[in-house]
Every structure is written in C-alpha cells, then in structure tokens.
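User: I need a structural model of 5'/3'-nucleotidase SurE from Blastomyces parvus for a docking pre-check later this week. Nothing fancy, just the predicted structure tokens so I can convert them on my end. Input:
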Amino acid sequence: MHILVVNDDGPPSQKCSPYLFPFVKTLEKAGHLVSVVIPNSSRSWIGKAHIIGEPLQATYISPEALVTDSGTSTHRAHDPNDAGTNGLSVPSNQHGRSTPDTSRPWVVVNNGTPAACTQLGIYSLFPDREPIDLVISGPNHGRNASIIYGLASGTVGGALEAATCGKKAIALSFASKEKQPAETIQAASRLSVKLIERLSAHWPGDRVQLYSINVPMRLDVEERPAVYTNMLQNSWSKSSLYQEVDIHTSQPEKASSNNSNNINTNGDINLREGTSSPTKRGGHDDQRVQPPQARYFKWAPELSDIQRSVEASQVGTDTYTVMNGWTSVTPLGANFSHVPGFSGELIL
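Assistant: Understood. Predicted structure tokens for 5'/3'-nucleotidase SurE:
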C-alpha cells in the first residue's frame, strides 16, 4: 500500500514526538510505500482546523536530517536564504519555483495543521507516486480516548480530513506520555502495523470512515487482545482549559506593548467589535468613559474531572480498554449524526 502518515506532534523528538520515526520504519519494513507530511511544530488540541490567511511552506527533507544522535529534532523554521542547513532544501526549477523531490518522502509544513498536511499529502506533494491508499494520523504521543480528547485531537482531525477526502483513515495513538524503552515502542509499532493491515484489507465499506486506535505501551502488547470499543461519552464539568493571569505582573513588557498596539494616535481603543472613545462629549462638560478592561488567560488544562470520568468508565469503552492493557479499536463515521425522532415544523 501507499500510506500517507501525518501527525499533530510535529517532527521527531524525545519530548513531543518520540514514536513517529520508529513507526514509519516499521511500516517500511513491512513492505509499504510511505510518504510523511508533518507540521513543523506541535499542533495538539487543534482538531480538524486549517489556518487560513497564512501561506503554507512545504519543505522536502531526508528523514535522517530531522533527528540527531540523541533522537531530538533538529528542524527549525526554514530560512529560504539558508537552503542547505540541517539537510533542509527545497529543490527549485529555472524559474525559482519549488519542485517536488519525491526521492525524499518526508515533508515538513510551516504553518501546517494535521488536516492541512492530509490535504497536501493526498492532492499536491507526491505527484510522481501512486495514489494514496490509506492515511494514518499518528502515532500520537499519548492516548486519544473519550470524546473530550477525540473531538479536540489533531491526530483524530488529520484522519477525519482524510475521510472527508474519500480515503480510508486511521487515527493511531500510543497511550503514554512517559518515556518508553525502545523495545516497547517497537512492539507497539509492530502490533499497529498488523492491525492497520488487517483493518485496511477488511474495510466494511461506507459503514466505517475511520478508526481510532489506542495502543497501551507495554512490552507484552503483542500478546494482549485488541478489541472493538465505543468512545467514552464525557464532558467538561467545569472550565478546565484556561487559567486567568495578571499579565501586568507576569509579563509587564508585553502588557505595555499590547496596550500601545490597541490605542491609536487619536486616543481611541480599537476593539474587534468596533471602537470606543475615552471621552464622551455632551453639552459643555466632557464625561470620562472608562475604557474596556482586558482580562488575560493562559492555556493551563486542569484535567482532574476528565480523569475521574476516565477512571469510572465502563467495560466496552475505549478508555476502560486501554487503561486495562488492551488495544482499543473504535470504528467511527466522519459526521455529526442527526438525532432521530425530530421532524416537522417548530411552532413558536
């Protein structure tokens, strides 16, 4: 098969993306033609989003150039004036336009998301290769079990994008963020390739548009069952993703810069919804109007309530299955299914 691999963790690194390189090597060892398109940095929690208004720069690269001897990523944003650094180069034709070098089957996309990498990989980046048979998004660094994680996941988002392009798609997650021995990663990769080959060969038509696979990181994972599951239905019970910060005490220079950017030379405060003047003139008196007060929040997920729902999950769910050391395989449709039982006119 010609398999397109995308991810949301970015280039190989011990910290953020330790599973990608060994997994791709295992796919190739099994005889598959593999093309890889990945964002230049982590895009976790981004779902199936595309970043509009920014150009995407796709750089063809030898995969070995992405990894140092210590296994950390060497990739940085590509400087067009420094084409040879770290093995990064975009071949150009006589008109100065980049031309695909498909002898380098890895592509790094600046400003890319998993969904964008999927689109580019299917339609644009490998014209000299046979069409894509299957898209694998992952392996994610950590599990993507339950709808809270599934709907937010860039890994699942990359697979969803492939499904909406009419391709078979699998979101693959290795369910641990802890550092793993090489032998455990290799075992998870071997099992994943066997599962992927089996699912692809017996795809049940339009009934399934993508699978979400969560693999427990255990040395004996190949000896333990892989079972079909449902996604745990959970939800936030409190605001758990962001924490308010006092930007004036934590980042005074940035706060000052932000204020100067928001106030123009006429003293007006520019807002997304419109403008507000700091003075209101009526009659002979000027009435001072307080400008809108900005509040600042940082990304600081507090996941204790989600963890409680995971720990209370029932047999048959993806979370229960992977937490108990079995591999979870969840068949999914790429849609927001309507709820049956509603029809006719709404009387107001």
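Before docking, keep this in mind: The mean pLDDT is 82.
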